[in-house]
Amino acid sequence: MQGEGLLAGLLGSLKPRRRRRQPTEELPLASRAVGYTVIAALLAASLPIILSYTLLVELSFSASFIATPFEKTSFTLENWRLFFQGRLAPTAAQIYTPSYIRRMILDTLIVALGVMGVVVASATPAAYAFSRMNFRGRGALMRFLILLHAFPGVALIIGVYAIYVYTYRRLALGLHAGEAALLAYAFLYVIVARASLEIPMSTWLMKGFFDRIPWEVEWAALIDGASRLRVFTRIMLPLVKPGLAALSIFSFMAGWEELIYVVVFLPSKAPTLASYIHSQLSGGAIETAYLPVVAAAAVVYLIPTILFFVFTQSLLVEAAEGAGVKA
Amino acid sequence: MVEVELRGVWKRFGDFVAVKNVNLRFPDGKFSSILGPSGSGKTTLLYLIAGIYKPSRGEILFDGEDVSQLPPNKRNVGLVFQNYALYPHMTVYENIAFPLTIKGLPRGEIEERVHSVARMLHIDELLDRYPHQISGGQQQRVALARALVKEPALLLLDEPLSNLDALVRLEIRGELKRLQRRLGITTIYVTHDQSEALAMADLIAVIHRGEIQQVGSPEDVYRRPRNLFVAGFIGMPPANLVKATVTRAPAPCVVIAGGGEYCPGEPLASKLEALGLEAVVVAFRPEDVVLGEHPMEDYVSLEAEVYVVETLGRENLVTLRLPDGQAVKAITSPLLNPRPGDKMYVNVEPSKILLYDPETELNIEAIEAAPAARPVSLAEASERRRAAQEED
Fold first, then answer.
1. Shortest CB distance from A326 goes to which of B79, B88, B102?
2. CATH fold of the domain at B4-223
3. ipTM computed for the complex
4. What residues of chain A have any CB closer than 8 angstroms to a CB in chain B?
């Protein structure tokens, strides 16, 4: 009975509304069987993911090095202590200062928030223009945006790298920029390069939100005496709030999870969580890495994703339904 | 307040001509109505006046001043949209206050004006609610309050009653008219519902396919339709339109199927003669028909067969067939209840009969005196040809 309750809860979290209207007790036998089959299939499909996340969290709290979630181990906070002390590779006897780990989280945040800021600030006005203004080449430009999105970021990296090297050289040799300025430039470059990959699809997403606002609402504000800019800030932006929230979250996650551009452009002394975890597992590093501490880093790396699902589910449902936008 | 004049206004959307050469004057302080079926261009015309659209050609004048190129926020107009277009993220109070907030008025004055207009429209209880929390009729009042709070020189209403149920519509209709009288604000009301236009407006402009068909008082439009479109559009049900031939023996007479003959007096007879028409369209209103078992003296009487009888409560609507198959509708007392297949006489007083030229579709009475008649219709024909070319 308890298992059934758990499953019902699981299914309920997937489809909250429909579930409430049709409690299990009232389902006819045939559709109940179908329901169990679906749940079983979903569980089977997601089992590898669930198992690896379980292993990850378990490993970060375990005293010994385990390879499956079912191995015997004892609970400890030692790995987390080591992690927050910045002693990330104890077996290699390397000594890190505690500030290192805070820098790592801060760097990840800078990239994530930067990408979010650039994407929101450029995709929103662009989407408004595509939705509301008639200009030459509008249709062609919109098709071009889709094409841009179809390019994988990795394919662009050679060109992006060439520009980076050229500008970095000019900055370092021509302008004699200091180390701090060069580091800031590296961050700026990663942020803008990564954001530019997100902007095409984000513009399309936001255009959908603007499209759902009736023209009459905008005209009403114009007639009420507002200028076009005032209409945008006072009427349009508040009405696409769910879209702005979705866009912020998606672009934040894109920056938070970014690996390739970070590894290529940021100096290795400024790793993000993603590039740190990557550095511990790639090449020969995995031979010497102390994986329980890496697991602790990976759990911290998951926190935004978890928060994202806890707090934004209802918001995203609202965004998907476009609620509050109808006049 | 303000007098609105349109001079040779055209509006094109790509290849589609929405408004064709409209010349109109909406008098200061009066309640005018733009009446037309859906797709006739009436809302486009209203948006042109509001400044949402710019005319492709022609001028729009407010008190003689050309405002064609002014954006809507510089025209001092209030507009109530068909779907109300309230700001969903603002409370009723914030909605009404929005035009004043934009102007940057002091908070105290805004509060005072919002409350006074809300009291006038009986929505002062709703100020804290959001638009989705109130009924359609209340939303309509909020939209009206938002349009009126800035004390515009011109109030534009785009089918404001069409989304309301019948009883609320009747109530708000009366209220709107009283309000307009009291404020003396120039009002232009767009509707497809002729009963609204007839009941409320001082002046009606009938529009069809982007062209103005007739401008006049409700009485004019109802009693003396300028062309066949207006005759067939106005009225519940609209006027009967029956094809007839003209004989000259020696004076011109109109021969209608079912044994009816109508010999018009002067000046209609000489106009008919001068125009040299072989056929005309005869128009008369269903409520002007006296249905009887015998032809009546001094009336034009048509023999017809009852086709269907609809009981409407206050009256009966009888549809009859003339011998040549044309349908005629008659409104009769509910006591008269003929059976389908009965032979009856459709009696119409000659003074209630209007004649139309089937070619130009114009009311023969309205066509200018004989010598001028041809040039006028020629000019119209060339205008039509030009319009047709514009469309291509």
1. B88
2. Rossmann fold (3.40.50)
3. 0.80
4. 214, 216-217, 219-227, 230, 234-235, 238-239, 241, 324-327
